[in-house]
Design goal:
This protein is an alpha/beta fold. It has helices spanning 9-20, 24-29, 58-63, 75-84, 120-130, 166-175, and strands at residues 6-7, 46-50, 67-72, 89-92, 105-110, 131-142, 149-152, 155-159, 179-188, 191-200. Helix 1 (9-20) packs parallel to helix 4. The structure holds S-adenosylmethionine (SAM).
Length: 201
């Protein structure tokens, strides 16, 4: 049996983009309807969705009245998003090195992103910088120890991923002067499947 190639995010998600939305229900099940309500009233808020992908969350935030900027390393994922909603601004960019000015956004979100970052603290630092004082950073950390196989039209691939201990995530945020306001664990069969953190600048 041939081995499955492990790709970096940009190349992997470019291949996965056309079928990514088939997994929407499965991805939603990791949030159990908890994510969006944590963002509060989004009307006229400047929101940055990092690793926005095909806009699973960005589209909902835009409908809730937010001025959404969707950033991602994958051109093809953002192309799918653009076809769904032309109001959302899109930008190709890296979570660890953002081109936005400091103190710019009211809210920064990232769902299913940090599993792809080797060192999330660099991203946390950037999220802190681009947030306004009092702004919130809300993100998820899935309990995934091994990269899953992803079906694409070109065959099966894996996308580089990294497990992050929930305690370390909170320590990292606190060391950057974020105030961790909520640290929520979602469970399936008594095993945690997703951590959702709300941190305030
Ligand atoms: C599992 S998808 C999540 C997409 C979307 N947030 C969602 O919840 O459906 C992960 C996304 O993060 C993007 N990504 C991975 N590493 C990134 C990085 N360093 N900077 C920005 N985006 C990145 C991928 O291209 C992909 O679109």
């Amino acid at each position: 049996m041939s081995k499955i190639k492990v790709l970096k995010s940009a190349a992997g998600y470019d291949l996965a983009a056309s079928t990514y939305d088939n997994k929407e229900k499965y991805l939603n099940s990791f949030e159990q309807n908890n994510f969006l309500p944590l963002l509060g009233d989004l009307h006229d808020k400047k929101v940055l969705d990092v690793g926005a992908g095909t806009g699973r969350l960005a589209v909902l935030m835009s409908k809730a009245g937010a001025e959404v900027t969707a950033m991602d390393v994958s051109t093809q994922m953002l192309q799918v998003l653009k076809n769904k909603n032309s109001k959302i601004k899109t930008l190709i960019g890296d979570a660890e090195n953002m081109s936005f000015p400091s103190n710019f956004f009211d809210v920064v979100v990232a769902t299913f992103l940090i599993v792809h970052l080797k060192n999330p603290q660099t991203f946390f630092d950037e999220a802190y910088r681009v947030l306004k004082d009092g702004g919130i950073f809300v993100f998820s950390n899935i309990n995934q120890k091994e990269a899953p196989e992803v079906d694409t039209k070109q065959g099966k691939i894996k996308i580089e991923s990294f497990y992050h201990r929930p305690e370390k995530i909170v320590e990292d945020l606190e060391s950057l002067a974020f105030n961790v306001e909520k640290n929520i664990f979602l469970y399936e069969n008594e095993v945690w499947i997703n951590q959702i953190v709300v941190a305030k600048k």
